Amino acid sequence: MLSLQQELESNDYPGRGIVIGLSANGKYAVTAYFIMGRSVNSRNRVFVTEADGIRTEAFDPSKLEDPSLIIYAPVRVLGSDTIVTNGDQTDTIYDGLSKGMTFEQSLRSREFEPDAPNYTPRISGVMHVEKGAFDYSMSILKSDDGNPSCCNRYTFSYDKPVAGEGRFIHTYMHDGNPLPSFTGEPKPVIIEDDMDDFTAMLWNSLNEENKVSLFVRYIDIETGEYRTSIVNKNQGAD
């Protein structure tokens, strides 16, 4: 089990990251999603609430350049499923699940982002919370070691999460030019009981210069009710 605080403090640029797991008291399905940025366009964003999820928006619309890879809905809810991703594949998964497809099948039509030379991976997660039961899956779609002619697809499923444990996946191993894609399985990390403490720890551990926004949600496994926390560097906490 790894410390999320140490993982984040030791990495200036993990890019965008998804955490999913079960709180230590076993009561809450937990997820977090953060975005970072190196360019003015990437840093000019905030998370805003929308229906049961969130959407990215330009903080200063006059500075918005190319919206294609930075404006999207990272979180959407479909019945008992909560979808969390780093791009518009959130909508692809939502539509696929609506048609009876699996999480993995829904992503077959997608691949890594067309942002050469980085070819940023698409990372995704889906949480299923229903009648006191919780399971989740995560996915990464990435170029074949920087070769854009081949998309490598990996899906990881966790059917009986252990209390206090989660998994962490992010887009980049560290800063660089080009940015090196995440490798290996999602990292096993410790999940805390208190949402406010967990949110503060994550936000304070992200690199001050590069962090942009953070979303955290705790879902009551018994009732399905949830609490959400959003922190935006550009306008404080929501």
Rounded mean pLDDT score: 96
Radius of gyration, CA atoms, in whole angstroms: 16 Å
CA(first)-CA(last) distance: 30 Å
Principal-axis shape equals globular
CATH homologous group name: Inosine monophosphate cyclohydrolase-like
Number of domains: 1
Low-confidence runs: none
Give the proportion of residues in helices: 10-25%
Report the strand count: 14
CATH topology: Glutamine Phosphoribosylpyrophosphate, subunit 1, domain 1
Strand content bin? 35-45%
Q: Figure out the total of helices.
A: 5
Strand order of the largest sheet: 11-10-1-2-12-13-14
The ordered H/E elements are: HEEHEEEEHHEEEEEHEEE
CATH class group: Alpha Beta
Reported for the largest beta sheet, the result is: 7 strands, antiparallel
Structural class: mainly beta
Q: Which assembly state applies to the chains in this document?
A: single chain
Q: Architecture, CATH level 2?
A: 4-Layer Sandwich
List the helices and strands and how they pair.
Layout: H1 4-9, E1 17-22, E2 28-36, H2 40-43, E3 45-50, E4 53-58, E5 75-78, E6 81-85, H3 89-98, H4 103-106, E7 122-130, E8 133-144, E9 147-158, E10 165-170, E11 187-190, H5 195-205, E12 211-220, E13 226-232, E14 236-237
What's the gist of this structure?
The chain is mainly β and 238 residues long. Helix content is 15%, strand content 41%.
Task: Describe this protein's structure.
- With 238 residues, the protein is mainly beta.
- It has one domain (4-237): Glutamine Phosphoribosylpyrophosphate, subunit 1, domain 1 (4-Layer Sandwich), CATH 3.60.20.20.
- The chain is 15% helix and 41% strand.
- It has helices at residues 4-9, 40-43, 89-98, 103-106, 195-205; strands at residues 17-22, 28-36, 45-50, 53-58, 75-78, 81-85, 122-130, 133-144, 147-158, 165-170, 187-190, 211-220, 226-232, 236-237.
- The chain has a seven-stranded antiparallel beta sheet with strand order 11-10-1-2-12-13-14, with helices on one face. A five-stranded antiparallel beta sheet has the order 5-6-7-8-9, with helices on one face.
